[in-house]
Design brief:
Blueprint lengths: L12 H42 L4 H15 L3 H11 L9 H26 L3 H9 L4 H31 L11 H12 L2 H31 L5
Helix pairs in contact: 1-2, 1-4, 1-7, 1-8, 2-4, 3-4, 4-6, 5-6, 6-8, 7-8
Length: about 230
């Protein structure tokens, strides 16, 4: 790791701040950001499937989705992460830290985002379905061409907030030894004992990332808002 090649002893506060910036940024680029993007994309796939199961009229399809969402929303993300990384090896399933984090975050995002997607789909007027059926569309075709495009516009703001929250949640991956941004701060702080400075620096980097994402979120919302009837 980068920080291992640097001696942080006897540095002034400003020098320590500057020298620890690169390892933290690399941790963000190599692990935090990829972990966030991969988990969110996979989570959206899980969310869409779960949302469709939730609105199904069949109990055999709907109940497993209800149990999954309830279990994920009713337990802390940290517990889910520990079950996957520390718990599964007890039954012979060992997963490396990074994939473990992806699985945990994907399942977590999938459960919460499924409620957003489900609510967005249900918010579309029934007349949209009926109009699609009158021109010969099947339910699947109506969903793909009529309902989901409208539901996507409705769900953009809450899903964007979920994405930004996920960036911060990835700091929990440091507890299973993923060398992401906060893990780098922990490693350097353990060598220098300057916890306040380094954890504050990590917080500022998270803040900067989330601020940039918020700008993109606002731009995206304004772009799609033009197509929403008022």
């Amino acid at each position: 790791m980068i920080y291992a090649t640097i001696s942080y002893q006897n540095m002034g506060a400003w020098e320590l701040f500057l020298n620890s910036l690169l390892p933290m940024l690399l941790g963000a680029i190599q692990y935090t950001i990829p972990l966030t993007i991969i988990s969110f994309i996979l989570g959206l796939i899980v969310a869409l499937l779960t949302a469709m199961m939730r609105i199904s009229k069949s109990k055999l399809i709907r109940i497993p989705a209800v149990v999954y969402v309830s279990a994920i929303r009713g337990t802390p993300l940290l517990v889910q992460l520990f079950i996957i990384f520390f718990g599964l090896p007890s039954i012979g399933i060992t997963i490396d830290p990074f994939p473990s984090a992806i699985i945990a975050f994907t399942l977590n995002v999938g459960a919460y985002a499924s409620e957003i997607v489900r609510a967005a789909i249900l918010s579309i007027a029934k007349g949209q379905w009926e109009a699609a059926y009158t021109i010969g569309m099947t339910k699947t075709l109506a969903l793909r061409r009529i309902i989901l495009p409208q539901a996507t516009r409705v769900s953009i703001p809450p899903l964007s907030n979920s994405f930004i929250s996920l960036v911060k949640d990835t700091s929990l991956a440091s507890l299973i030894l993923v060398a992401e941004l906060f893990r780098q701060a922990q490693e350097i702080a353990a060598r220098t004992f300057d916890f306040l400075l380094l954890y504050t620096e990590a917080g500022l980097i998270y803040w900067a990332i989330c601020f940039i994402l918020s700008i993109f979120q606002n731009s995206l919302e304004k772009r799609y808002d033009r197509f929403i009837a008022k």
